Amino acid sequence: MYEFVSLLSKWMLPLMIVMIPLYAIWRKVPVYESFVEGAKEGFPTAVEIIPHLVGMMVAVSIFRDTGAMEFYLQFLRPIASWLHIPEEVLPIGLLRPISGTGSLAFVESVLRTYGPDSFIGKLASTIQASTDTTLYVITVYFGAVGIKRTLYALKVGLWADVAGFLFSWIICSLVFLS
Fold first, then answer.
1. Which of 143, 62, 142, 130 is closest to 97 using CA atoms?
2. Residue partners of 165: CB distance under 8 A and separation at least 6
3. Are residues 87 and 39 in the same domain?
4. For residue 165, which of 109, 104, 89 has the smallest C-alpha distance?
């Protein structure tokens, strides 16, 4: 199973990078021109979301620097210990819905400490890839198109992050500890 997952992960991205333009050429889509047109249309949106990005960056900084993250982690540690979830990945699961860059910094720390081939390294990487920056998505994307009522999207997104975290742990345990 490990060899299959390893082989699949090595070839999936290169195949997609080659197959998507080839499919577009086969469908007679002008690939480069379409890309440039999309970039032109996206630029005003990028300018519009700058205030939302700044607000999100300030919120993340406040969450980390005030000790709020450590406050929440102290409540999660006993549950994680009971479930045998490594404590080292808890900050990733807690920070990932708020900040992709912040959680990536924790993944990098885990990879440096334990190595990318360790169970904790693989689990941290899988959690990073299986969850999303829910608050960022709601703030930036919903803000860019003017959606104000985001409560249900927030609930679903956060539950999806919890599911992504737990299933990452379950699948990594089954694949890498078996």
1. 130
2. 93, 96, 127, 130, 131
3. no
4. 89
In this structure, are residues 133 and 127 in contact, taking their beta carbons and an 8 Å threshold? no
pLDDT of the residue at 120: 96
What is the rounded CA–CA span in Å between residue 35 and residue 29? 10
Element (H, E) at 35: helix 31-48
Contact present, 128 and 96 (Cβ < 8 Å): yes
Q: Is 99 helix (H, G, I), strand (E, B) or coil?
A: coil
| CA 114 to chain centroid | 20
Q: Please indicate, yes or no, whether residues 110 and 22 belong to a single structural domain of this protein.
A: no
Residue 59: is its pLDDT beyond 90? no
What is residue 138's DSSP assignment? I
Helix (H, G, I), strand (E, B) or coil at 61: helix
The Cα–Cα gap between 66 and 13 comes to: 39
Span 104-154, pLDDT tens digits: 888 998 999 999 999 999 999 999 999 998 988 888 788 778 888 889 999
Q: Which domain, by its residues, includes 16?
A: 1-46
Distance CA 128, CA 106 (A): 10
